[in-house]
Specification:
Blueprint lengths: L3 E5 L3 H9 L5 E6 L13 H12 L3 E4 L2 E6 L2 E6 L2 E6 L2 E4 L3 E3 L2 H4 L9 E3 H9 L8 E4 L3 H13 L4 E4 L14 E4 L3 E6 L3 E6 L2 E4 L2 E4 L3 E3 L13 E3 L9 H22 L1
Helix pairs in contact: 1-2, 1-6, 4-5
């Protein structure tokens, strides 16, 4: 019987990994979101094709279930039906990435309210909650463009974009968006953020969205660091490409196959 490989993440990377494992292992894919696709979106042709390929490879998808802990060849998963334990010979973590936090960006200054990660800012804006009339967004890649679009839709009067590496992808075309290519340096404010100090000057704002750079999401207890039975497959390219996501999944499948061969 084929060995089981647990894959955390049903985005393009996780699905590509599951498809590439065909014949060498039995992939079991877990994702806390109830549909496949991750940040790429469940309704894209690439997602549908990737999910179909994974299912043809014999992958079992547990969508809407959250991976909690990896220990001694067992993945603990929590979902609507309760706790599930998945025995596996290896774990592939393809849980995506997040924008860099304030400390990682080296932003000095006080710690006022109103400083949000792009993931949080996008979620709040999608629900109609306006985080600020004049927010500033740090970054020029995928998360930054997504945040700017959501902020404008939620009703922001204007959005200042501070892009250290310039705009890396198309941004919403609006006279309410003001872009400068500069390095963010410090935060100003009292109870709430009032400005972002950059290498080009001071940008007034009433909210600050952090969307520059990427770090891998490693939120499965017991699999935070690389281990003998853990493989991390999280490309950190910004902007991300479909092919980069697929390539990371295929590379993870090869690494899992090599791990199983050594164990055998």
């Amino acid at each position: 019987m084929a060995e089981t490989v647990a894959v955390v993440g049903a985005g393009l990377t996780g699905l590509a990994c599951a498809a590439a494992l065909a014949g060498g292992a039995r992939p079991v894919v877990v994702d806390r979101i109830p549909v496949a696709g991750g940040v790429h979106g469940w309704d894209r042709p690439e997602t549908r094709a990737a999910q179909a390929a994974a299912e043809r490879a014999g992958a079992v998808l547990h969508l809407g279930e959250t991976a909690i802990r990896w220990q001694a060849g067992e993945l603990l998963v929590m979902g609507p039906q309760g706790v599930r334990r998945i025995a596996a010979s290896a774990l592939v973590v393809a849980a995506g990435s997040r924008p860099l936090g304030r400390a990682e960006l080296g932003l000095a200054g006080p710690r006022p309210a109103g400083i949000l990660a792009a993931t949080v800012a996008c979620h709040l804006s999608e629900t109609g909650l306006l985080i600020g009339r004049r927010p500033a967004v740090v970054g020029g890649g995928d998360w930054a463009a997504r945040a700017v679009g959501h902020l404008l839709e939620a009703g922001a009067d204007e959005v200042a974009v501070v892009a250290p590496d310039g705009l890396l992808r198309p941004f919403p075309d609006s006279r309410r968006v003001h872009v400068q290519t500069a390095a963010p340096m410090a935060v100003q404010g009292g109870p709430r953020v009032t400005a972002l100090v950059t290498g080009a000057g001071v940008v007034a704002c009433d909210a600050l969205v952090l969307a520059h750079g990427l770090a891998a999401l490693r939120n499965v207890d017991g699999a935070v660091w690389d281990g003998p039975r853990v493989i991390h497959a999280q490309p950190l390219d910004d902007p991300v490409t479909v092919e980069a996501a697929r390539a990371a999944g295929r590379a993870a499948a090869r690494a899992a196959g090599a791990l199983l061969e050594r164990a055998a």
